[in-house]
Design a protein that fits this description.
Blueprint (H helix, E strand, L loop, with lengths): L1 E2 L5 E2 L4 E6 L8 H4 L3 E6 L9 H11 L9 E5 L5 H20 L12 H19 L8
Antiparallel strand pairs: 1-2, 3-4, 4-5
Helix pairs in contact: 2-3
Family: Belongs to the prokaryotic/mitochondrial release factor family.
GO biological process, one term: rescue of stalled ribosome
InterPro entries: Pep_chain_release_fac_I, Pep_chain_release_fac_I_sf
């Protein structure tokens, strides 16, 4: 069981880990040991997460979210399989914690009188510059 907060804990059946061969440094060890971790979390079917958290998690995870509603996190940072597993689980916990906070609603405000005046003045100056670009006539 993976504890995210005091209220939210992810059960073991919701997580699937598969180990694959990693690329990068490691010498002959790379060709022999499957040290990279692919952590799959069945977020859509998870009873641990409320519906609004699931929608925010889907938006935050981006392309890591699959069509069948699973969140896939890959990690091949270190040469140690156990360390990569811990890093992947920490990334999942951090992503879920970020999706727990509701975003602030934007309060619509009016532009100030000064900003309206400056904008109109800038438009007038720009219009005068463009008006001077016309063809030159002899007087």
């Amino acid at each position: 069981m993976l504890h995210v907060t005091d209220d939210i804990a992810i059960h073991d059946w919701e997580l699937t880990e598969s180990f694959v061969r990693a690329s990068g440094p490691g010498g002959q060890n790379v060709n022999k040991v499957s040290s990279a971790v692919e952590l799959r979390f069945e977020a859509e079917r998870s009873p641990s997460l409320p519906a609004p958290v699931k929608t925010r998690l889907k938006r935050l995870s981006g392309r890591r979210w699959t069509k069948d509603g699973a969140l896939v996190i890959q990690c091949d940072e270190t040469r140690s399989q156990a360390r990569n597993r811990d890093i992947a689980r920490d990334r999942l916990i951090e992503l879920i914690r970020r999706s727990l906070t509701t975003p602030k609603r934007r309060i619509a405000t009016k532009p100030t009188k000064g900003s309206i005046r400056r904008r109109l003045q800038a438009k007038k100056v720009r219009g005068e510059v463009k008006a001077l670009r016309g063809s030159v006539t002899d007087d």
